[in-house]
Amino acid sequence: MMAMSNADIQIEPKLDIEKIRADFPILSRKVHGKPLVYLDSAASAQKPKQVIDALVSAYSDTYSNVHRGLHFLSEASTDAYEAVRGKVAQFIGAQTGDEIVLTAGATMSLNLIAQCWALPRLKAGDEILISIAEHHANIVPWQMVAEKTGAVVRAFPLDADGSFNMSAFTDMMSPRTRIVSVPHVSNVLGTVFPIVEIARVAHDANALMIVDGCQGAIHMPIDVQNLGADFYVFSAHKLYGPNGVGVLWGRGEILAEMPPFLGGGDMIDRVTIEKSTYALPPQRFEAGTPAIAETIALGAAVDYVQSIGMEAIRQHEQDILLYAHQRLSAVDGLRLIGTAAGKSGVVSFTMDSAHPHDISTIIDNDGVAIRAGHHCAQPLMDFYDLPSTARASVGVYTTREEFDCLAVALEKVNRIFA
User: Fold this and answer.
1) 66 class by beta-carbon count within 10 Å (0-12 exposed, 13-18 middle, 19+ buried)
2) CATH classification of 52-307 is 3.30.230.70, yes or no?
3) Is 116 noted as a catalytic residue in this protein?
4) Which residues pair with 128 in a beta bridge?
5) Quick one: 6-44+309-417 is in which CATH superfamily?
6) Could you report the per-residue pLDDT of 172-217, keeping only the tens digit for each?
7) 235 near 208, Cβ under 8 Å?
8) pTM reported for the whole predicted model
């Protein structure tokens, strides 16, 4: 269990939760005649009206293709689109917007790194070190590279409660380790990985350091310079933004050495029938017409969370998470999966009485939305000898009362299966 006290439970961060919830239109709707209790933000967060309005405005007021037109609408779209790089750079502490590659999502970002950095450089016997807690998006791209190069993917374990074990990590490092790629926060366990220390070990071994920040950038302040990573990726849809947009931050000198990921328009310098030369980063990695309106809406999402303050969001979510652990621990037959100190974002659990899929289906009738399954982390499920878990996750709009609703619904599950 997470360490907690009554004093911890009584602390209420200074955050106007009712005002925030009013920003999210979907939270006022009913599901099966019951008020919606949305506890699936780790999969995809709901969208505030500020983001929705930005998306509609981009389509209805200024829409045109970017980078290619000299007319008013194209210039307006281009200015709004490119301004997002600066917003994202400031949001995560990058040195310049030129280090921000706009992608289709974190999965594409990780595949880009695998194909453009790892594939040309790795050779037989080289090692890619990940953790047992990885999302499939931080496993499969490395396996694909390993199949083509003869490199080996290895995974270090965590402690039984989900805590990071530095000895387990360092014991797996070897002179052949070329890449270390880990989550900032586990999407199943909530474990916060000590990125600064991991990066130091990786760089001492001359290995590249990559961070899957999908569950990190949404819950806490990020400064990629202080973290010491070489790449940091995340997706807009988990940051209260739209689908189909992601961010790849990379050190400028590393990006400059990488070949393009896709070929086509907007990533070129000069094209002839015989040969093409390529644009400088980040445009080199952005072939084709991008998600224009969605990227502009990502900028609105960044503005939104910064208007609240990432530290205030972190404090609020920590309060909710502590309460959730206490409240759910009182449910008969419920076992928490992942109780590392300082965890973030999610509460995974199983129940003696019912399979996670049955749990999710039954409580949906009470308007409670959680996730059930392997959470794109099947090796972690194997590690815990579990087929799946139920997972409730928090966002800026989550309240203690919503976990009360979840607990009541779970007691109903017990009664049904008893």
Assistant:
1) buried
2) no
3) no
4) 153, 179
5) Aspartate Aminotransferase, domain 1 (3.90.1150.10)
6) 999 999 999 999 999 999 999 999 999 999 999 999 999 999 999 9
7) no
8) 0.95
